């Protein structure tokens, strides 16, 4: 079983990383074409609508996490009857959710004019929004089938389909955008390929697990227990949306819709980075769920120790590189006029750091169902974030809205959740965890001081000098981070792997 977990995790990570690399290359090409054909205001509209529909996704009430979590045990026990009953239950639920999102989404149309704060008039705004809404609703029609692939440690199958359709969609939409320079055509292509991808993956899941098409019913007590899990998951859903799904809306209202476009040029890098890292950690979630069901506390802590030390290495390296390369990259890629204030960059780097540093907690939270015991602190995080975003946004603008995200994390679940996890699942003190966080922050500060001194002697004038600076910054960061963490459990494990097998 242990080898099976490792094999599935490696497959999930390998396929997902390949998909991310492809999408990363396509993202920069498509973003450049998008700005060239439509302009920064439309880029801001795209970011704003994504935020609105992320908030609408609250309608799933945390069913996604509950659905995957509830499948771990029956999959480990090969209980096909229970899996069929769960699929039938979630099918009914998600059809209802799709309807609710559609109704609420349409009801929000009259309020769009209050959220868009643009210097130019945007025609057909309602049509654009409806197309984005249709793209969102598409995912809820088949998710009840595809989730079993994730729960059964076969996320790589979803990734293969996603990668193929993403490449085709990006190429086709860019071609039509260059020909027509029409946002409606661009969005119609996006919607078409979203539906095609989702139903293709759904069909594959139905063939692999034919019993999920059967109609079985859960007992009243099973449904009651699921709704308890869902209630806790809902709190986490709210917090996640407030932390990451409201920034663009607040930026649009407080700073301006164009600022959303400028900011998105920065986040295309940080989001891709977190996307890569998200793959590494979340590809392990289903395997950890299996491990939690079958292994003891000692083994759970050993695996957590490995995962955390890897996250410390990654977040330290990425934070340093982003801090010293992001502005030069935007300057070379798009031009000086697209470069934002350095304080905004610092806020993005701080958010990136905490996002990566907290990944081990997040994957163990999902794998163990920990969110059922820490839901109240997460709700406090959401409240604090909204308050601080408005306060700091009015005081210092874009950077203030971004800093609010990290501050709200630090004063709430950043310190509380590790205490619960270590006590409930490891029988150990959480001081180890906080010590590792403090160590990584000191490492980042020390290496950054060296990087700052060295970068004074490098002037970026184009792609070649940017690559040169990237090699220098990356090299110093790698040497420094490796020197500190070379004896950690995670690095030792990575060095022991034979990737040629």
Describe what this molecule looks like in 3D.
This protein is mostly helical and 501 residues long. Helix content is 83%, strand content 0%. The longest helix has 37 residues. The two termini are 19 Å apart.
Features:
501 residues, mainly alpha, 83% helix, 0% strand, globular
Please write out the topology:
Layout: H1 2-38, H2 40-56, H3 63-76, H4 80-107, H5 112-115, H6 125-140, H7 143-151, H8 155-180, H9 183-208, H10 220-244, H11 247-254, H12 257-282, H13 285-294, H14 297-333, H15 342-357, H16 359-368, H17 375-396, H18 398-410, H19 413-426, H20 431-455, H21 463-485, H22 489-496
Helix pairs in contact: 1-8, 1-12, 1-13, 2-11, 2-12, 3-4, 3-7, 3-10, 3-13, 4-6, 6-9, 7-8, 7-9, 8-9, 10-17, 11-12, 11-17, 12-14, 12-15, 13-16, 14-15, 14-20, 14-21, 14-22, 15-18, 16-19, 17-18, 20-21
């Amino acid at each position: 079983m242990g080898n099976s977990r490792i094999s599935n995790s490696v497959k999930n990570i390998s396929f997902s990383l390949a998909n991310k690399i492809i999408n990363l290359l396509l993202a920069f090409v498509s973003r450049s074409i998008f700005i060239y054909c439509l302009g920064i205001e439309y880029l801001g509209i795209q970011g704003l609508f994504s935020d609105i529909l992320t908030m609408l996704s609250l309608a799933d009430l945390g069913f996604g996490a509950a659905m995957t979590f509830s499948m771990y045990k029956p999959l480990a026990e090969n209980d096909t009857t229970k899996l069929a009953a769960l699929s039938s239950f979630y099918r009914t639920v998600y059809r209802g959710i799709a309807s609710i999102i559609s109704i609420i989404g349409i009801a929000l149309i009259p309020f769009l004019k209050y959220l868009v704060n643009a210097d130019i008039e945007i025609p057909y705004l309602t049509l654009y929004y409806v197309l984005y809404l249709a793209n969102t609703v598409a995912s809820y029609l088949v998710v009840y089938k595809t989730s079993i692939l994730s729960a059964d440690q076969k996320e790589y199958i979803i990734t293969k389909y996603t990668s193929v359709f993403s490449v085709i969609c990006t190429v086709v939409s860019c071609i039509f955008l260059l020909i027509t320079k029409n946002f409606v055509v661009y969005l119609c292509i996006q919607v078409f390929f979203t539906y095609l991808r989702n139903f293709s993956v759904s069909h594959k899941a139905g063939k692999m697990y034919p019993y999920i098409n059967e109609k079985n019913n859960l007992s009243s007590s099973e449904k009651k227990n699921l709704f308890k899990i869902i209630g806790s998951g809902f709190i986490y859903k709210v917090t996640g949306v407030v932390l990451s799904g409201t920034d663009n809306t607040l930026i649009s209202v407080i700073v301006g819709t164009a600022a959303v476009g400028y900011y998105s040029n920065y986040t295309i890098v940080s989001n891709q980075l977190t996307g890569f890292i998200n793959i590494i950690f979340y590809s392990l979630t289903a395997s950890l769920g299996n491990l939690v069901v079958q292994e003891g506390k000692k083994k759970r802590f050993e695996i957590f120790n490995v995962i955390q030390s890897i996250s410390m290495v990654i977040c330290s390296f990425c934070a340093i590189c982003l801090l010293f390369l992001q502005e030069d990259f935007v300057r070379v890629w798009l031009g000086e006029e697209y470069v934002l204030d350095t304080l905004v960059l610092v806020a993005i780097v701080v958010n990136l750091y905490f996002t990566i540093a907290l990944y081990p907690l997040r994957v163990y939270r999902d794998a163990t169902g920990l969110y059922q015991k820490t839901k109240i602190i997460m709700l406090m995080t959401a409240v604090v974030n909204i308050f601080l975003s408005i306060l700091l946004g009015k005081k210092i603008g874009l950077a203030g809205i971004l800093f609010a995200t990290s501050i709200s994390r630090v004063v709430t679940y950043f310190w509380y959740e590790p205490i619960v996890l270590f006590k409930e699942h490891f029988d150990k003190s959480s001081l180890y965890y906080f010590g590792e966080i403090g160590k990584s922050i000191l490492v980042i500060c020390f290496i950054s001081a060296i990087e700052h001194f060295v970068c004074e002697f490098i002037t970026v004038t184009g792609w070649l000098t940017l690559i040169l600076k990237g090699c220098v910054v990356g090299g110093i960061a790698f040497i420094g981070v490796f020197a500190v963490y070379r004896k950690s459990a995670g690095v030792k494990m990575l060095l022991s792997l034979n990737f040629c097998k």
